[in-house]
Design a protein that fits this description.
Shape: globular
Low-confidence stretches: none
CATH topology of the largest domain: Phage tail protein beta-alpha-beta fold
Protein name: YqbQ/XkdQ domain-containing protein
Strand content: over 45%
Number of domains: 4
Structural class: alpha+beta
CATH class of the largest domain: Alpha Beta
Distance between the termini: 32 Å
Largest sheet: 13 strands, mixed
Number of helices: 4
CATH architecture of the largest domain: 3-Layer(bab) Sandwich
Pfam families: YQBQ (PF24032)
Number of strands: 21
């Protein structure tokens, strides 16, 4: 493993000075690198400097130092983020008849962010009006609309200095995690507490009639079991009636399900980052057994000396 800092024309290899290293990736969020480094006289670096993490020929992280903390033993804890951190900036946009790809690349260009291998999401969004929202929320909103209307999931991440957007199908791996392989411990959670809805209510203003058109779909069986969990959203007034009904049905299909998550402590594997799919085989999780692909929602890689572990948070594909 090699850690390099580039600062004002100087390059520092701090690999031999580092004690603890933590690299975390989350779906559609900035990756984080935390490093504890021993201060020596010749080492001088600043906020905004570039830091890179590589392992032999594999490029893992390229980002920018945002925070430094120093203790009495002259150990400096560095916190760095990749380019997605700059998508916390806020702005106002109006997009008409644009795909999520076109919306994202427009934002990348305006904020001078480097990107490559941005897949064409194809679906045209009639109109997207965003007022004083974070750039990340704007792009995520466009990707969510694409999911609801096409059923396709796209993942955005920084690939060692270039932002990319890929269909999640292209991020599958052949790695299998199970009771007797990489896993050392796990926690299985079922929940209806977050992002689960059994009733969808969409509405739009109708200028011709002066009334409000409403589209409601629901699952009566799950309402009996869970109570009413309602999602409500105002649609663009120009959306066609058939399309509005289809969007409501698609939302119910996506959101009306028990949310199952699995957290696993594992032996580290640097091939894995958020958005990858892995095979999971665990015999007994209480109400079910798992033998299927799962999506990595977040993964934290940790190095202590030569010991590499990772904490995986997975969701059902």
């Amino acid at each position: 493993m090699e850690i390099i800092i580039e600062s004002r024309g100087k390059t520092f290899d701090i690999s031999h000075l580092c004690s603890d290293v933590e690299w975390k990736t989350e779906i559609n969020k900035a990756a984080t690198l935390k490093v504890n480094v021993q201060k020596v006289d010749e080492l001088a670096f600043f906020e905004g400097d570039t830091i890179k993490l590589t392992d032999k020929d594999r490029k893992l992280f390229k980002g920018y130092i945002f925070k430094k903390e120093r203790d009495k033993n002259q150990i400096i804890e560095i916190t760095a983020y990749d380019q997605l951190r700059y998508l916390k900036n806020k702005d106002t946009f109006i997009f008409k008849n644009k795909t999520a790809t076109e919306i994202a690349t427009h934002i990348f260009k305006q904020f001078q962010l480097k990107y490559k291998e941005v897949e064409n999401t194809s679906f045209k969004i009639d109109k997207l009006v965003e007022d004083n929202k974070t750039l990340l929320d704007i792009i995520q909103g466009a990707l969510d609309l694409t999911l609801v209307n096409t059923g396709k999931i796209y993942i955005m991440y920084d690939d060692f200095g270039h932002i990319t957007i890929k269909n999640i199908d292209n991020l599958r791996t052949d790695l299998v995690i199970g009771d007797e392989s990489l896993a050392t411990n796990f926690k299985y959670t079922t929940s209806i507490d977050n992002d689960v809805y059994n009733k969808i209510k969409l509405f739009k203003d109708n200028k011709k009639t002066g009334k409000r058109d409403t589209y409601i779909v629901y699952d009566s069986n799950n309402i009996k079991k869970w109570g009413i969990l309602q999602y409500t959203e105002k649609l663009n007034e120009k959306i066609l009636e058939g399309k509005a009904k289809q969007q409501a049905e698609n939302l119910l299909k996506v959101r009306n399900r028990l949310r199952r998550t699995l957290s696993i402590d594992c032996i580290g594997d640097i091939r894995l980052r958020a958005g990858n799919s892995v095979g999971v085989f665990i015999k007994d999780l209480g109400d079910i057994s798992v033998n299927q692909l799962m999506i990595i929602d977040s993964v934290t890689h940790k190095w202590k000396g030569n010991h590499h572990t990772m904490d995986l948070n997975l969701i059902y594909e």
